[in-house]
Amino acid sequence: xxxxxxxxxxxxxxxxxxxxxxxxxxxxxxxxxxxxxxxxxxxxxxxxxxxxxxxxxxxxxxxxxxxxxxxxxxxxxxxxxxxxxxxxxxxxxxxxxxxxxxxxxxxxxxxxxxxxxxxxxxxxxxxxxxxxxxxxxxxxxxxxxxxxxxxxxxxxxxxxxxxxxxxxxxxxxxxxxxxxxxxxxxxxxxxxxxxxxxxxxxxxxxxxxxxxxxxxxxxxxxxxxxxxxxxxxxxxxxxxxxxxxxxxxxxxxxxxxxxxxxxxxxxxxxxxxxxxxxxxxxxxxxxxxxxxxxxxxxx
Length: 299
Description:
Blueprint: H1 4-27, H2 29-51, H3 82-118, H4 120-134, H5 138-149, H6 155-164, H7 167-182, H8 185-192, H9 197-233, H10 244-253, H11 263-291
């Protein structure tokens, strides 16, 4: 039989947590601003390409036009609308960033918690494996991988490659957190009471790890945006006119540092990268208050 009361308690707890989340956001204006920035970019990536039309044709007469009602962010070296490129490029940038964060955090979580909780030979093998990856310079490794493939990568493939260099440090950090939690009094009490290892892991250790994991999930999103845009910027990945890294590279190649007409084309993707990173960082302030009872204040 279905335990209706259990699901009712779960639903009630979820609603309570959601209300508290928005209560914190309303109280913390900085975090609320960050939340709105991130939400705006997510909405733009989700529905923007369906609404904003991107003309791929070349019109030399419209090269590097300044912002106007017709072209809010001006035009590029081929007379194409810069705003349309920003909108269409945002989808791939965010999809890859979120997938990379999910892959990185999942792998690091499994390896880190298994290593810290099981210990022994499992700990030695997993941490040795992580240390091997930590000794390899991450960005050169990414360059070698993406250039050797020599093909257009799907968002899932790109995210999988970026996550290769992101999980080792996080896995070690999660292992350290698990080892620290295992030494606390409530874990010793659970062991003395004869509670199962499954309960100790999922009922005692995991809830204390979730705040740390969520914070690192956001940091992984930020790092993935930088890595992806950087690889496109240096030309390691196949040309994609709407990617923000390609736009920055094209603007610099067109003399953006010395030609004021190109400034809008250069500043548009740079501003988007800075703005979305700022949004995530500001939003993290709310998560700190939600997860850390010492930071909670009454409305």
